[in-house]
Design brief:
Keywords: Cell shape. This protein is of the alpha+beta class. It contains 4 helices and 12 strands. The radius of gyration is 49 Å and the shape is rod-shaped.
Length: 292
């Protein structure tokens, strides 16, 4: 009995013993069949849940904030990539359209030269327009071929639509072309063009030596017999005089009227060439010129 009292007088051992008894009691209580939680368990669960709610909500908000920042950065990066892709697409589309237009224009030029080769024994050398002088008194253009390619003064220059002018000056690498729109009957240095109506070479003859700036038309004068000539007839160079090659397209007849002195007739001719927005032109080499 005395030993038991001494044993119980040890506080640490006594506390451990009480704790062990309570632990065994709790174990037995929790392991037994139950339909609901005990109030201590409920208290602990509610406490843990409340603490988790208090810490989880701010943590979730902070995590969501950083996630939103990351998403904004990704969105900004995607927008920059899309802007670059759009710029490349716009550039490539413009380049494609330009190439497509150039290809169509060059194809038209090729068809033009092939048709001319079948009709006349001329060589048509293509040249690019590098400058334009818009002086209304002396309109000229400069081509990127010259004496090195065999170009000579007096050679005719044409577009795919019709006659443009004649080479007036030649250097080694460039040529200056005087436009037919500068023709003036009052100018002694202006050369007229001997012309006829296509398909009526033996019936109609005339001379184009004046260009009317106000109406944008040629005046075909010195027509002796206007009966074979009709509106919309195609006027071409006849080759008489040797200044311009035969068969160069000038334009179409708009109307026919009595000349200035009433002895001959004059026809108003609308130019076939537009005289604007040139890209490529052709220098006409006649067989005789190539042999020299």
């Amino acid at each position: 009995m005395l030993k038991l009292f001494k044993l119980l007088s040890n506080k640490r051992l006594f506390i451990m013993l009480i704790g062990l008894i309570l632990f065994i009691a709790v174990m037995g209580f929790t392991l037994g069949p139950r339909t609901s939680l005990s109030w201590p368990e409920k208290f602990v669960k509610d406490t843990v849940g409340f603490v988790q709610y208090i810490f989880y909500k701010p943590a979730g908000a902070i995590a969501g904030f950083f996630e939103d920042i990351s998403n904004l950065r990704n969105l900004q990066k995607e927008n920059e990539e899309l802007k670059i892709a759009l710029a490349h697409y716009t550039r490539d589309k413009a380049r494609f359209n330009w190439i497509e237009q150039e290809n169509a224009r060059l194809q038209n030029d090729l068809d033009f030269t092939n048709a001319q080769k079948e009709q006349y024994n001329y060589t048509w050398k293509i040249a690019h327009v590098i400058s334009v002088n818009d002086d209304p008194v002396n309109r000229t253009i400069v081509l990127n071929i010259g004496g090195r390619e065999g170009v000579k003064e007096g050679m005719a220059v044409s577009s795919a639509e019709g006659l443009v002018g004649v080479v007036s000056h030649v250097s080694n690498f460039t040529s200056t072309v005087k436009l037919v729109t500068t023709m003036d009957a009052m100018d002694p240095n202006s050369n007229g063009i001997a012309v006829t109506a296509q398909g009526k070479e033996n019936e109609v003859f005339g001379v184009i030596e004046t260009y009317d700036l106000s109406s944008g038309t040629f005046q075909m004068s010195r027509i002796e017999d206007p009966k074979p000539l009709a509106k919309d007839d195609l006027i071409v160079s006849s080759g008489i005089g040797g200044v311009f090659p035969r068969g160069m397209i000038i334009g179409k007849v708009l109307d026919i009227h009595v000349g200035e002195y009433g002895l001959t007739y004059t026809a108003t001719v609308k130019p076939a060439a537009s005289f604007t927005d040139w890209k490529e032109l052709f220098v006409v080499f006649e067989p005789e010129a190539e042999q020299e």
